[in-house]
Amino acid sequence: MRRLLVPLAAILVLAAGCAPARTGTLGPAPAGAPPTTGATPAPRVTTPATTTPRRPPPPASPTTTAPMVPDQPGRGGTITVQLWFTRDGRLTPTRRTLPATVATSRLALTELAAGPSRAEAAAGLTTRVPSGLQVVRIVDGLATLAPAAGFGDGGAAAVRLRRAQVVWTLTQFPTVRRVAFADAAPTGRGDYADLLPPIVVTGPAIGDRVTSPVTVTGSAEVFEATVSLRVLDAAGREVGTSFTTAACGSGCRGDYRATVGYRVAVTGPGTVEVYEVSPRDGSRVNVVAVPVVLVADT
């Protein structure tokens, strides 16, 4: 009989090991657990819990990549807005850093009508937007504009390019997805995508002070998605080259981001060029030249 009990005990132990795991562990019940009905709870010995004081969350880091969000009124500061001007009949972006305001759409339209700076004008940028254009309201992502004198002048192509400037400028703000003009249906950025050049450079902007390596960003629709870059010094000498690929190639537009290093002896004017290498003859085509200030190596 004793010989039978030993294997039987072993079988019971193995069966217990194969049983599903029970949740929790043995020990005092968690604080706040309801007592078991019909049973006298066993006395428990508790010790004061050691708790770590809760720390307040760290302050948010300053946002440097979302220029469309202004500071709170009365706190000063600046805001950087993107303005879409025109060059050779196509849309071209630039930037302005101005005193912060809650009326960002009004600020952007005012700057758009004021036109390019001297350096931007020298690089070929112009504006077709007249002064006096105002946003009447913004509801559910739709910005409705009041008509402005001269906005419809110049023919259909000129008016469309003018509207494209306004739409691409206003839709940088998170509250605006489409724009309604007085005499037309609401439109968004996609309605004017054909007015973008093959290569768009969103950074650096004209006149920016850059250091090596300089980061270049934008979008492109080029052969095999290959975007080439170079840096020229004040004398036009090539002092740095690089290339990258856009997120989409021929037949579609994709974003790109690349860095290009350079070496100059003294800080002074220079140029960042972004271009496509022609598949026919290897020449540089669709060149976008951005005049900048090159900071010398330290």
TrEMBL record:
Query: What are the protein's UniProt keywords?
Result: Signal
| One Pfam family per UniProt | Gmad2
- Which residues does the annotated region (Disordered) include? 27-78
Residues covered by the GerMN domain = 105-191
State the InterPro entries in the record: GerMN, Gmad2_Ig-like_dom
Q: Where is the composition biased (Low complexity)?
A: 27-53
Q: State the species of origin.
A: Micromonospora inositola
Point out the signal peptide segment.
1-21
Q: Which SMART domains match?
A: Germane
Any keyword Signal? yes
Answer yes or no on keyword Signal: yes
What protein is this chain from?
Sporulation and spore germination
